[in-house]
Amino acid sequence: MACPGRLPVVSPRPTHSATPGGAASSHPLGDVDARCVATTTADGRNTIAEPLVPVASWRMDDLRFQFDSSFIRPEAADEFTLLAVLAKEHPKAPITLFGHADPVGDDAYNKRLSGRRAIAVYAVLTRDPALWEELYSHPHGRDAWGTRTLQLILEDRGHSPGPIDGIAGEQTRVAIKAFQRENGLTEDGVATPLTRAKLFRAYMDGLCRDAAGEPFVLEKADFLGQGGDGDRRGDVQGCGEFNPVRLFSQAEHQRLQQPANRAERDRENAPNRRVVALLFRPGTVVPLAKWPCPAATAGDSKCRKRFWSDGPTRRTFQEQRREYPQTRDTFACRFYDRIAGESLIEIHAGGQGKLFMEIRDALGVEPLAGRGYRITPLGAAAAMFEGRLDNQGRLSHAGVPSDDYQLVVDGVAGEHAALVLDAAASEPQLRFLEG
């Protein structure tokens, strides 16, 4: 069969929504490249390998987790609602989750912690308390849920345990008894596995709802790997610290390593600690035998095999600070870089986006090449951007704080000289100006 060079993709109008703890985006997509694969069948026909093309993406930030933990805080309800809205906009789009850590500490530790966070999100979406029980019962370093986690859940469910101090005191036992009574369990005030399962499920139901307040639940079949193996490969990945969106300069790294500056270091690293969901074109299927990522909590050796040839260099602190939207050289994993690198979620990591426009004359024919321009924010953002349009009449600025902006082009008079721009653009927005 003949191999087409392009495959049509239909996508909704691009959107980007943000909350204090995350964001969700639909991606503007046109046609995409298809690859012809040499025949492996008896009839001698070629097959078509369609690329993995995200049509939408979602992010939950570090602040929605307990510190250095996979436990998801009650405030994450806003982010789950964002994902529910996104899933409704993209019906039958298979989902996969990637957990990420910051480049601090041990690779193996961060690989597993990031995987545990992704598993925690997956468990909420699929309402699988057994996965949370596994996280609870098998601590990983400082990721030990314990009594403090149960107290947070009890408080959220309306049964105050008193101070959230990690101590199973009398007030905590009274709160557990009240929950047990409410759910038809033996009232002994002990958080047994059965009590924990009920607690986890009740918490998940309250945490994960759509915009109308109805429960938002996904099935295993809604994920890219469709729960095809016991390790949830294709559904949940832990990338560790291999794909940060921000890397300090050498000087910053040395300064922030000082004990007095650790809090600042953690704040500056926050955009790196995230769980990302990618939604793919409906009908996308990936054979698990060819899926390159290891199990979410497995070691990192298979991840390293997928590094770019300059992967070790990408991970090194260099002379200048690097932000992914600007430099595009902070993701060591070439697989993740290829499928997530154009997602608005990664471009907006840390609340930043990209301005990308093409300015033509009023007839839409000739580019206003070489004209000077100025871009000023209309809201809270402080930065102003200026420069000259290139020979195609284009301007591009990455790492732009989300805001509305005004564009003024030299030599353009009249009411169209100033425009409100959207910092979420990932393809050039056409503008026609008198000039």
List keywords for this structure.
disordered N terminus; 60s Ribosomal Protein L30, Chain: A; 435 residues; single chain; 21% strand; 4-stranded antiparallel sheet; 6-stranded mixed sheet; Immunoglobulin-like; alpha+beta
Strand order of the largest sheet: 2-3-7-11-8-9
CA radius of gyration is: 24 Å
Number of helices: 13
Largest sheet: 6 strands, mixed
What structural class should be given to the helix and strand makeup? alpha+beta
How many E-type strands? 19
Polypeptide structure, described:
It is a single chain. Among the domains are: 53-127 and 208-347, OmpA-like domain (60s Ribosomal Protein L30, Chain: A); 352-433, Immunoglobulins (Immunoglobulin-like, Sandwich). The chain has 13 helices and 19 strands. The protein is globular, with a radius of gyration of 24 Å. Helix 2 runs antiparallel to helix 3 (129-137) and helix 4 packs across helix 6 (193-207). It is of the alpha+beta class and 435 residues long. Helices cover 27% and strands 21% of the residues. The strands form 6 sheets. Strands 2-3-7-11-8-9 form a 6-stranded mixed beta sheet, with helices on one face. A 4-stranded antiparallel beta sheet has the order 15-14-17-18, with no helix packed on it. A 3-stranded mixed beta sheet has the order 16-13-19. The relative contact order is 0.13. Mean pLDDT is 84; it is low at 1-13, 30-48 and 415-419. Strand 2 (15-19) and strand 3 form a beta hairpin.
Describe the protein's topology.
Layout: E1 6-7, E2 15-19, E3 22-26, E4 32-33, E5 35-37, E6 47-49, E7 54-61, H1 77-89, E8 95-100, H2 107-126, H3 129-137, H4 146-156, H5 170-182, H6 193-207, E9 236-238, E10 246-247, H7 250-256, H8 262-269, E11 274-280, H9 301-304, H10 311-314, E12 322-323, H11 324-327, H12 334-340, H13 344-347, E13 352-361, E14 372-377, E15 385-388, E16 394-401, E17 404-409, E18 418-422, E19 429-433
Parallel strand pairs: 8-9, 13-19
Antiparallel strand pairs: 1-4, 2-3, 3-7, 5-6, 7-11, 8-11, 10-12, 13-16, 14-15, 14-17, 17-18
